[in-house]
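thread: overnight batch results

M.L. [08:02]
morning all. the overnight job finished for the chain we discussed friday. pasting input first so we're all looking at the same thing
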Amino acid sequence: MAKLFRGTYTAVITPFTPSNEIDWVAFEKIVEQQIAGGITGLVFVGTTGESPTLSHDEHREILRWSVQVVNQRCQVIHGTGSNNTRETIEFAEVASEAGADAQLVINPYYNKPTQEGLYRHFSAVAHATDLPIIIYNIKGRTAVNLETETLLRLLIHKSIVGVKEASGDLAQIMDVIRHTPEDFCVLSGDDALTLPILACGGDGVISVVSNCVPGSFRSCVQNYLDGNLVAAQKQFYSLLPLMQLSMMETNPIPIKAIMHHLEYCSSQVRLPLCEPTEATQQAIEEALNSIQQMELN
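M.L. [08:03]
and the structure it wrote out:
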């Protein structure tokens, strides 16, 4: 069986107006830019999309709207995860009804479940919907790591088809790649580890910086997957400063500021996030010309 998810996926920002409402005009402009860049797929309402500050109604509206505006021109993955299993299942049902290709389900955060609790949480979501599940493993935001042994237990559920790995632990990621079936998808959740993870046998990335350089990052990943290793390495190192810039402060603060400078949307984020520091702003302004040149080459 072929892998369902392989390539470059953008964790799309959610643009807001200066009055803190969703900016649907800017949102559509961003989606069109991504599709024009040849992106493999788009991930809506993830951490980069500021899911913690979206109301339930806004969350549902984005899930339904996104499938319609993309209109099968690339894959669509919906962020449905929360630290409430019942709520996750409710969003999973919305994503499934909307016609998404998959759902991204993060480790439950703050309530810090045990490995058995994680197993039961993901199992409950898998039992509730047939929509493919990509588990999002990111200890830095959730305070809990999904251990490889627990992930392997979860593979009795055929709907669990992949993992977005943002543990930062290459040894763990290699262990996952080594022990999971050939059709299981392992996607980098950290832009700067994309090339190492691909080299270990991974399948691609769910990216932050591809918000502003979808064509360049897609080309880099595709070159690697096609066996053009030298070209992929050269492209990756040209993108690395941008990856580092995007993480100067908490994501998505820098990437939203970059997208604002590129005239896609406002830089508005919702509290408790706030505007970037002057140092970050200056670094972004100094990098703008090179960012624009990346998509032209």
